UniProtKB/TrEMBL annotation:
Residues 39-185 form the GAF domain. It comes from Pseudonocardia alni subsp. carboxydivorans. Keywords: Hydrolase. This is GAF domain-containing SpoIIE family protein phosphatase. SUPFAM superfamilies: GAF domain-like (SSF55781), PP2C-like (SSF81606). Pfam families: GAF, SpoIIE. Residues 216-441 form the PPM-type phosphatase domain. The keyword Hydrolase applies.
């Protein structure tokens, strides 16, 4: 019937030992330690709304499965009376199957699915399409599900599911932080260990949100992220690259890239960064023909209008190679450190033009500027965050000149060597996160 189910969830009548999984004592104790139940929690509500906006669904839930019911500390779009109660009995639960299997559950049309066709959530809550991802504690126990729900059949795309997994990692990290805080209160003597664990969770969360770079004919890319050393001093730096839907034979190839830095530290900055990166991805996809100012303008309007209200710096670039021609790069810079263009003749150009930072009232309605250059084959574009050149007690112009001199020595060794050299130039202890991202334009003519 066109159903898509992940994790082998295809048998009618549920799962063996499903009741034992739901009623597992250790799992229920972990649930209780989170302090979450059928009451609104601001962070959980924010995560549910993040799912709603990112996937374009009417309903999204942070659902924690108890012995006889599921509760929704995070919720958006649920009809009454379930919305007021923030809970339903398990007769109305799809998420119990995620707990029972410890696997994602993806359903195109629940009315035709043998696992849930008779679930009362279909007539009572209007659930038709469902995608749920496990929410786990530090031991891998499934506490519930982060789920997206539609009232009509839906073919969930790979991007939908990747986004849902990314946000679920953020939600699980928040649950684990709450469990860690509970344990720290019980065992005050272990507070230092808990803080170290929290730091690792935040760093792993940020690393999970960083992009797997695409493979693009005619380009080589390399990127590296390094967190700050001080405890929990992890910020909102990111890099990203996606092939655009305009990259067809008749149009040549098109790639959108961005680097940026959301102002702030710790988990709030990391979660804001994840939202900003995905919002810029969506804007780049919707405006695949560019220009970058249209992409960034769409992001800024959404950032102001529906949140998250992030502020920071960014470079957004659109790279296009028409058939039989060199690559053309167009970019706009919102207060970010100037990219470097390493030309094949040994020259290095600082692309210094920039506009103001984003996310501040004073920049509302600002007209941003597109810049353009035709890139010589064999060139390398190097983008980075301010932690690479801003250091306490140092002059930024001097550190930028030192960076240019350093990269001059490795410009012919490929993008991986460029980002490695940049990162190895950092002192052992850094005060800020650092991103280094290099894009090399092949010298071979386009095929």
């Amino acid at each position: 019937m066109g159903e898509a189910v992940v994790g082998g969830l295809t048998q009618a009548g549920g799962y063996p030992d499903a009741e034992r999984a739901v009623c597992d004592r250790a799992r229920l104790l972990a649930l209780a330690r989170t302090g979450l139940g059928p009451a609104a929690d601001p962070e959980m509500d924010r995560i549910a709304d993040w799912v709603r906006r990112a996937l374009g669904v009417p309903t999204a839930l942070v659902s924690l499965v108890q012995v006889d019911r599921q509760v929704f500390p995070g919720m958006v779009g649920l009809p009454e009376p379930a919305a007021a109660e923030r809970a339903t009995p398990l007769t109305h639960s799809f998420c119990q199957h995620v707990v029972a299997s410890a696997q994602p559950l993806v359903i195109r049309d629940a009315r035709a699915h043998p696992l849930v066709w008779d679930n009362l959530a279909i007539p009572d809550l209007g659930v038709v399409a469902y995608a749920g991802v496990p929410l786990t504690d530090e031991r891998g126990r499934v506490l519930g599900s982060l789920c997206a729900i539609d009232g009509r059949p839906r073919d969930w795309s790979d991007d939908d599911l990747a986004t849902l997994h990314d946000i679920a990692r953020s939600c699980s990290a928040e649950l684990r932080l709450r469990l860690a805080r509970y344990d720290a209160g019980i065992e005050a003597g272990r507070r230092d260990l808990v803080e170290q664990w929290q730091q690792q969770v935040v760093r792993e969360l940020q690393a999970a949100m960083l992009t797997v770079l695409p493979t693009i004919d005619g380009l080589s890319m390399a990127a590296r992220y390094r967190p700050a050393d001080s405890r929990l001093n992890v910020g909102g730096d990111w890099y990203d690259a996606i092939a655009l839907r305009g990259a067809r034979d008749r149009d040549g190839q098109a790639v959108a890239v961005s680097v940026g830095d959301v102002i702030g530290h710790d988990l709030p900055a990391v979660t804001l960064m994840g939202q900003v990166r995905w919002m810029l991805r969506q804007a780049a996809w919707d405006h695949s023909a560019g220009p970058p100012t249209a992409v960034f303008g769409a992001f800024e309007a959404a950032n102001r209008g529906i949140g998250p209200g992030a502020s920071g710096t960014a470079v957004v670039a659109h790279m296009h190679r028409p058939p039989g021609a060199p690559w053309v790069v167009r970019w706009t810079n919102a207060g970010h450190p100037a990219p470097l263009l390493l030309r094949p003749d040994g020259r290095t150009e600082l692309l210094a033009e920039h506009d103001a930072l984003f996310g501040f009232a004073i920049t509302d309605g600002l007209t941003r500027t597109d810049h353009e250059l035709v890139v010589e084959p064999g060139s390398t574009l190097f983008l980075y965050s301010d932690g690479l050149v801003e250091r306490p007690g140092s002059d930024i112009d001097e550190t930028t000149r030192a960076l240019v001199a350093l990269l001059d020595g490795v410009r012919d060794d490929g993008p991986e060597a460029v980002v490695t050299a940049a990162m190895e130039s950092l002192p052992e202890n850094t005060h800020d996160d650092v991103v280094a991202f290099a894009v090399h334009f092949h010298a071979d003519p386009p095929g």
